[in-house]
Amino acid sequence: MPGVTVPALGTASAWRDAARGLLGANVPPEDVLWAYDGGPGDLFAMEPAAFAGGSATVPRSFVALAETVCWHADPERFARLYALLWRLRATPALVGDRGDADLTRLRDMEKAVRRDMHKMKAFVRFREIGGAGGRRRFAAWFEPAHHIAEPMAGFFARRFGDMDWIIVTPDRTVEFTGGRIALLPGQSAPPPSEDATDALWTTYYRNIFNPARLKVKAMQAEMPKKYWKNLPEAAAIPEMIATAEARARAMQAAAPTLAPARARKITERLRMVEDEPAASDLEALAREAAGCERCPLHRDATQVVMGEGPREAPLMIVGEQPGDREDLAGRPFVGPAGQLFDRMAQEVGLDRDAAFVTNAVKHFKFAAKGKRRIHQRPDASEVQACRWWLEAERRLVRPRLILGMGATAALSLTGRGDGIMKRRGTFEAAGDGTPVLLTLHPSYLLRVPNAAAKAAAERDFRADLERAVAWLSDADGAA
Ligand code: URA
User: Fold this and answer.
1) Which atom of ligand 1 is nearest to the CA of 337?
2) Which of 131, 212, 372, 439 lies at 20 to 30 Å from 343 by C-alpha?
3) Residue whose CB lies within 8 A of the most ligand 1 atoms, among 361, 443, 444, 445, for a mutation test
4) How many angstroms is it from 6 CA to the middle of ligand 1?
5) Does 479 have pLDDT greater than 70?
6) Of all atoms in ligand 1, which is nearest to the CA of residue 405?
7) Can you tell me the distance from the alpha carbon of 89 to that of 95, in angstroms, rounded to the nearest whole number?
8) 177, 164, 251: which is closest to 213 by C-alpha?
């Protein structure tokens, strides 16, 4: 019986070559014994030449599926993939059959690997360990659930190309020195602990933590406890949770109290909606989006940033794309533009927490400049690719009104991004007829250099927010 030992290095391409050869030689799945060589270096226990020359036409989506599933930790993954590949030869349409148990199992494995990759992007924490030749040097320890260090190496090389680093995992070490990647054996224990970088992460996490929006379950779903032991900032979590209520009360007491009566009414109504249980379908959508590769922006961004807020929020607020802070935090509008928005919304009695806040584009687009990541406006094709997610959010939330902030939101929602200064303050319609109130983007307010122009822009923006509150209040009255 042919036995194929797939190596730990280059696993996906080695499996593909072997499977292609076996298929070409007409070897049925039950006649193949698959094994994985956890150690580095080895190729095949059985000479690959024995299967050389095989070729098969395989649906593209299966190739992508196999490419990901090969990194799964399940020892049966190679056999499962080959069994499906064998069946696909006779029935290519199987690849789209949602009821097929084998395919469903493999799709679940694919999702698990993608989730693990997403967690690795979010939770790898570098510690500085000195440097040489002008390049700073960092080390990180991470314990993935699957064999993802190799397929993730390219992401970290692109993201942290201006420094040397090493990411150690139990089964693989990725070393990036002077612009070159090396894949080395793993290690069983983390490198040495605490340094100044840990303190930075803790401060950053404290700063983005909003006690008024604490949702312990959601937080633990996004940052599962098993990752805490390797996260410097995790030490601060129990204390932040314990003091969240008191801090939220203090924030509330310090907030402006002069909301107009109409605004107060709508705020109360929005709050009632917020109390409804979180919808599992938005969560499923977010899980699906975590693996989004619909446009190239996923390659450099840390993670996808989906909208947040109550499922049946009457108001949906749409911005452009996550910024640097949002990209790291995984939440929309938590950086400077978000803070400005929060302040002005509060002034007019618009409760952000009762609205669904999202972006037209879900990945951060930037150009690396030294250590800084400079925001780049998404182009029309990226906006178009991401409309798929925005539309899905809109269908699930079914807002009564959408507030589109800035040209990118206008483009995605109405099909036109031009002339936003003239169009702001007016109502248009989204593709499905939902009214869209257009306004300026809050980050524009942050950039206006001239004091008079800035004051005028702030006045306009505030007026538009008031318009949104009034519209919802009127619609409420009419309902
Ligand atoms: N700008 C946006 O458009 N969205 C964010 O989430 C943050 C900044």
Assistant:
1) 8
2) 372
3) 443
4) 44
5) no
6) 3
7) 10
8) 251
Question: Which pLDDT score, from 0 to 100, does residue 278 have?
Answer: 35
Contacts of 320 (CB under 8 A, 6+ apart): 359, 360, 361, 377, 378, 405, 406, 407, 408, 409, 441, 443
Ligand 1 pocket, 307 CB below 6 A?
no
* CATH among 3.40.930.10, 3.40.470.10, 3.30.428.10, 3.40.30.10 for 279-478: 3.40.470.10
Rounded to the nearest angstrom, the distance between the alpha carbon of 165 and the centre of ligand 1 is: 30
Spatial distance between the Cα atoms of 254 and 244, rounded to a whole number of angstroms: 15
Looking at residue 106, its amino acid is L
Share of the chain above pLDDT 90, in %: 51
User: Tens digit of pLDDT for each residue in 111-148?
Assistant: 999 999 989 988 888 888 776 667 788 888 999 999 99
Largest CA distance in the chain: 81
Cα distances (angstroms) measured from residue 434 to each of 314, 316, 347, 395: 11, 10, 26, 11
From 303, 333, 366, mutation site for ligand 1 pocket: most ligand atoms within 8 A of C-beta: 333
How many angstroms is it from 145 CA to the middle of ligand 1?
A: 32
DSSP 401-443: EEEEESHHHHHHHHS--S-HHHHTT-EEE-TTS-EEEEE--HH
Q: Given the structure tokens 């400049």, which residue do they identify?
A: 369
More confident residue, 457 or 97: 457
Taking the CA of residue 443 as reference, the ligand 1 atom at the shortest distance is 1
pLDDT at 199: 61
Q: pLDDT tens digits, residue range 27-74?
A: 999 999 999 986 443 334 444 433 344 455 777 888 889 999 999 999
For the chain, domain boundaries? 2-120, 124-185, 196-252, 279-478
- Written as six digits, the tokens of 180 are 């070159």
Closest CA to 333 of 410, 452, 343: 343
* DSSP3 helix / strand / coil % (the chain, rounded to 5): 50, 15, 35
Token pair, residue 233, equals: 């900032």
Between the CA of 312 and the centroid of ligand 1 the distance, in Å, is: 22
CB 436 within 8 A of CB 402: yes
Strands (E), 200-348: 315-319
User: How many whole angstroms separate alpha carbon 62 and alpha carbon 12?
Assistant: 13
pTM (two decimals)? 0.48
**How far apart are alpha carbons 101 and 98 in whole angstroms?**
8
Instruction: Please work out whether the CB of residue 320 comes within 6 Å of at least one atom of ligand 1.
Output: yes
Sign of torsion over alpha carbons 44, 46, 51, 56: negative
CA of 320 to the centre of ligand 1 (A): 6
